[in-house]
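Our working data are protein records whose layout never changes between entries. The record below serves as our worked example for the rest of this section:
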Amino acid sequence: RALSGNDPELQKAALLGLGRIGAAKSIDQIGTYLYSPQPDIRKTAAFSLAITMNPNAYNWLVKRLASETNHGVLAELVAGIGIAPKHESDPDRVTVLLPYLDHVAISVRASTCDGLNYAWSMYRDTISVPNSTQVFKLMSMAQAHPELADHCLYSLTRLRTETALFEQAQLLKTIATASTPRSEEHTSELQL
């Protein structure tokens, strides 16, 4: 009832409540509010979808990103894409987010850095790592736009940490695989 009313504050509170609960059946209900005529409602719907931690929310966010024009809503969408889990068949989140580093609005660029940070922190085993050109772009943005420096530098720091952790995990897997005896002959050779 709160969602269907005319009180925007009540609608936002209801959307946040549904997002916090995270029930699968509420994803489509929240998603329809990404198309509200009111930008504040669309922003709240984007945030609410992201916090459901339901992979079905990811597609809603990506689809709306393609047609959204309001900078505040775009900023919430790109951050949400970095947070929301996704199905394996869904588009790669880094590929979706990187073009928004060139957006005209500083708020969208800052939220894109934040979205990349969330993605690298939460999903390092399943996302693409940016190439050196993309990393250079983040460094250049940090230098050229003081208002973006914290967002960009934190993303770069997080990327460096997560990449090191990922490489360490891969190395440990390789060591574990290499140290597992392959056959009884190999085991007897090791004993000699």
About this structure: Residues 56 and 64 are 13 Å apart (CA to CA). The mean pLDDT is 83. The two ends are 76 Å apart (CA to CA). The chain is about 70% helix and 0% strand.
